[in-house]
Design brief:
2 domains; mainly alpha; globular; single chain
């Protein structure tokens, strides 16, 4: 039991270090523990979602635009931009004409093209506008949607790890090679409780589902156009999933 708890601690440490910019040190063996335990993805989602939602507590006290900016900055401070780099790379690959080999070449190219600029602009603008929408909600609902969207995005990453097939050697092959379809049970079980955060209103559950669907969009595109997933697809799934989950949650509350 002690060894198992120690391994889980290593997985959480490595997962937090990889998915956030929080000052968490890692040791030998931590990475292997992380890639073999997909439940860490949604667990870190709870942490990031809760911390990023702190500026939303000022809704109703500060201007909505200020609260939205605070939320955007909190996401940037907590997670950095390395996942956003996946959005940029997929944006460039999406506008290239050619077979999967040609698109994979573009993914590795360090040159920033118009596809990358457009994709990153849409995602950042979408996140800022979602923050503005959250600032207009009751504080408790806004926090529930923010946390649920973050957990849903991380659940999407976990499903990619469990069910995806790598397009080439790299991060994607490291993660997907360590797991199988039976591994989806633990991350799903960890993520589902967030859907009860706004009970009796199902807003958080809707945000969770929206984020999961949004995270699956890059996966669907990558299977058709890249021949499988890569580290860039994981990063894009995280960023797109979050934005879609937030907007779906705000819309659900507005229409309720």
């Amino acid at each position: 039991m002690t060894d198992r708890l120690r391994t889980i601690g290593r997985a959480l440490r490595s997962g937090t270090a990889f998915l956030t910019r929080l000052p968490v040190g890692t040791q030998a063996g931590d990475w292997e523990a992380f890639v073999s335990r997909p439940a860490v993805f949604p667990l870190v989602g709870y942490l990031v979602g809760g911390l990023a939602a702190l500026p939303l507590l000022a809704a109703g006290t500060l201007p909505a635009s200020t609260v939205a900016l605070g939320y955007l900055l909190a996401i940037g401070f907590l997670t950095g931009i390395h996942h956003l780099d996946g959005v940029a790379d997929l944006g460039d690959a999406a506008v290239v004409h050619g077979d999967p080999d040609r698109r994979r070449e573009v993914l590795k190219d360090t040159t920033t093209g118009v596809g990358a600029l457009f994709a990153v602009t849409v995602v950042v603008a979408g996140l800022a506008l979602a923050g503005l929408g959250l600032a207009a909600l009751p504080v408790g609902v806004a926090v529930a949607v923010a946390v649920a969207a973050e957990v849903g995005a991380k659940l999407g990453m976990a499903l990619l790890a469990c069910l995806g097939t790598a397009s080439h050697e790299g991060f994607g092959s490291q993660v997907t090679g360590a797991l199988g379809s039976s591994s989806v049970v633990s991350p799903v079980a960890i993520a589902l409780p967030v859907g009860l955060f706004s009970w009796p209103y199902p807003v958080a559950a809707v945000a969770l589902g929206g984020a999961l669907a949004g995270a699956c969009l890059p996966w669907w595109w990558a299977r058709r156009n890249l021949g499988g997933v890569s580290g860039d697809v994981f990063g894009a799934a995280n960023e797109i999933g979050r934005v879609v989950g937030l907007h779906v949650g705000v819309i659900a509350w507005t229409l309720s």
